[in-house]
Amino acid sequence: MDSLNSLIDGFGTALTPINLMWAVIGVLLGTAIGVLPGIGPAMAVALLLPVTYGLEPTGAFIMFAGIYYGAMFGGSTTSILLNTPGESAAVVAAIEGNPMAKSGRGSQALAAAAVGHFAGGLIGTILLVALAPTIAELAVDIGAPDYFAIMVLAFIAVTSVLGSSRIRGLASLLIGLTIGLVGLDTMTGQQRLTFGSLQLSDGIDVVIVAVGLFAIGEALWVAAHLRRNAAAPIPVGRPWLDKSDLKRTWKPWLRGPFIGFPFGAIPAGGAEIPTFLSYVTEKRLSKNKNEFGKGAIEGVAGPESAASASAAGTLVSMLTLGLPTTAVAAVMLAAFQQYGIQPGPLLFEREPDLVWGLIASLFVGMVLLLALNLPLAPVWAKLLQIPRPYLYAGILFFAGVGAYAVGGEALDLVILLIIGLIGLGMRRYGLPVLPAVIGVILGPAAEQQLRRALQMSDGSVSGLVNTPFSVTIYLIIAVLLAWPLLRKKFQSRRNVSA
Amino acid sequence: MRLRTPLALLGAALLVFVGPPLLSAGDGSDTGTQIPGLRFMVPNTPGGGYDITARTAAKNAEDAGLTHNIEVFNLPGAGGTVGLARLVGEHGNGKLAMSMGLGVVGAVHSNKSEKTLADTTPIARLTEEQDIVVVSNDSPYKTIDDLLKAWKANPSKVTVGGGSSPGGPDHLAPMLMAQAAKIKPKNVNYIPFDGGGELLAAILGNQVGFGVSGVGEYLDQIKSGKLRLLAVTGPERVPGLDAPTLREARLDTEFTNWRGIVAPPGISDREREKLTALVEELHDSKEWQESLKKNGWNDAFMVGDDFGDFLKEQNERVDTVLKELGL
Amino acid sequence: MNSRQTPTPSAPRSDTRSWLRDHSELGVSVMLFALGVLVLTDALTMDVDIAQRGPVGPTTVPIVVGIGLLVIAALLAFDVMRGGQGEAEGGEDIDLSEPSDWRTVLLLGGVFLGFAVLIDPVGFPVSGTLLFWGAAYALGSRHPQRDPLIAAVLSVATYYIFNNLLGVPLPGGPLMGVL
Prior knowledge:
The complex is a heterotrimer.
Chain A: H1 2-14, H2 17-35, H3 41-52, H4 57-82, H5 91-139, H6 144-158, H7 166-181, E1 183-184, E2 191-192, H8 206-224, H9 243-265, H10 272-285, H11 298-321, H12 327-338, H13 347-350, H14 352-381, H15 388-407, H16 410-428, H17 434-456, H18 468-497
Antiparallel strand pairs in A: 1-2
Helix pairs in contact in A: 1-14, 2-3, 2-4, 2-14, 3-4, 3-12, 4-5, 4-14, 5-9, 5-11, 5-14, 6-17, 6-18, 7-17, 8-15, 8-16, 9-10, 9-11, 10-11, 15-16
Chain B: H1 4-23, E1 39-42, H2 49-63, E2 71-74, H3 81-89, E3 96-101, H4 102-110, E4 121-136, H5 144-153, E5 160-162, H6 169-180, E6 190-192, H7 195-204, E7 210-214, H8 219-223, E8 227-232, E9 256-263, H9 269-284, H10 286-295, E10 298-303, H11 304-325
Parallel strand pairs in B: 1-2, 1-3, 5-6, 5-7
Antiparallel strand pairs in B: 3-9, 4-7, 4-8, 4-9, 4-10
Chain C: H1 15-22, H2 26-44, H3 60-81, H4 102-122, H5 124-138, H6 146-166
């Protein structure tokens, strides 16, 4: 139990009053900045990097841990309340969280997200402590064919979010895939659908797409059908999760980390795909399927927990291999290097105090995040009580700020508006919005992994199934697809025997 | 009562027009190396190479008291050409500089960007870094000779992984190697990865034949024995690393990545001199020298026209290589 | 979506018109078809000169997506002709019993476009104020004193937080450097 002892020492470092103070400041700053539109965790950490320059390394990284978790939670807050996700990991939170907020269950949604972050972070960090070296070894064996198999699985999962009309759901998915095509082809550098514009050559960011389809599209759609007479303020409702909420959320909270953590740890994992997979899983398993899309609390709890655990997974590869799997990790890696510390295989031996102090402060940061934000949830939720015109004007305003702040390009605002108009049309004609966002996330990733796998095998299709992992995934897919048939057979046999 | 509306409008107008300039006032005086309101553009994302260079340089300049409050901001896109286009668009702006490097030279070509580095005012080259040729510790290639033999025998089966998109430094290096080894560029099977992290995993997992990356990126993995360093691409061996140069392996080529600073076109001579003086002072500061050491960057300081000529020469070289590749 | 009908309270003049209104969803089908053609044209006119390895090159996925769009456009048209209809999305603030108010949508879209056009020449604080005020006005807020002041304070505060505190540059306006 070597790592346990080291962890206890780590708590000794993290819980000194001064380091505790840095953690509190980090969580507060991170949340405050994460709430701002257009500033995701990576940007928040980069912006706050200079604040930590004056500190000694341990204090600085403890503060970083706070900023990271704080910024992730802050991103979910705006996603839930204003339908404007500030970063890709928070996109899924808007799908169920915003309808909840609109119907007066905003504080429950925020509380479910806060506890989800806590649970995900806690389980994720425990897995980090227990499994870091093992997982790091395994993670590097996951290659392009394996990723592609996971993408195929994810595409099959999309069918469960297509909505009532398959045709309209698929149309939405194809619109998303088309948006995902825009930009330079990652493998060869060919221009695709860029119409010669340099600004389009990096593609359209999924956050812009999500904010455009969700926030702008919604604001325009509301404008077309605004309830002029009965503008009763949105009720704040009871501030806490009640028994029935807890009954619905505890399983998603615990399931999320086991989807999020592995994805965080693998090199091309990130948080979008696990949050989406968690959402689909919760939808499948929920007893309240008909509530999905209208504000099902499971759809907030699971994905948020997965997102937080994936952040912990990110740290596994970064600390043990020096391998940054997300933008935040890349910024943190740069920060380590500022202090002359090189994360990687030798880090645990060279800087045990710092590493274990950092890991311990992750636990501390999560407790602080929960303690600070759970009481704040009803306060945040009151934000929605401001008059409708101001609320939607504010959403447009912050969506605009966010889109502009990322690159300082007015063209991004035009793109945002165009996507918003598409979102309006989709709402008018009953095309579900979610498949389009999923298409933007999955399309480019799947294509890249497919082509990378084929290139590695020099064009041979066998390159897609030459790893045990990918074969396993395809077998799972086969079982999933055959399941309805199998079940029917099974049932009829049982009926006969009965 | 009637007056209230115009008053409210007036108040609002006053606030939005006069507020921002007042908020930003007091940036300091324009003396010595001080350039009030200097902004430093990073044409890639936070955490990337140009970002780290820019943020380090800005912090060191502030710490050394050369100028205060340099604002570093990111404008990523198309390998740096979106930032370049913006910089060129800021004609005559003496309070803007951009962090850049060889990658931007390549991106100008592969993106067919209208604006090129010839449109900018070159300020200085700051650092350079050799590339390395690495494989995992259980790779069948024990030496660079093993690798070259296998590569020449079957170029398309021995895949090359790099952390940059086509046209970037990690792509150029293996292409130059292939050229020297008489391998047809079209036969090189180059696989781009999203930055050094994903590439590292692919090398460690033996998913690519070999990897090419900056020397600073994987020092620790090399020292801990997880990666086997086969060669360095520069003109001389890297102190502390036990690996031959390409020339020692009888490949007649060399490749060094570099980073520097450029300013918008059309700035006045005085503005140009001030920026140059600032980077010269920065270069001499102990803070910068310390940062070079910490980050494992080689000092490659070069200012003014020398840097301008260097840019031209690099531009031609990249152009030739990429043309041969048909990019 | 271009074929969206402007709702008039008066009865439709002819049968063709009312048929078109009932089947305005065909416009979505047309859009999807046009998008499919665009994607396919872009893919087929791409000059692929790099040695492609294996069956999947830079044009493969666009071709698949483009064909998918054409197929789904046809299926959707078929569905609409058979009487299928997309269900307009409901919501707390949405009153579907009222006819669509495209004037407000147009106004709101115009305000946002104005923001995009003005932000570089007149700066963020001014354009942001106009965005918030204009959007609030479009959505029915009529407080000639309160609205512009709220908008201005919000805009300048946002500018200050982003530009001065965080160092995310936003354009300050024509008086920057003059005062």
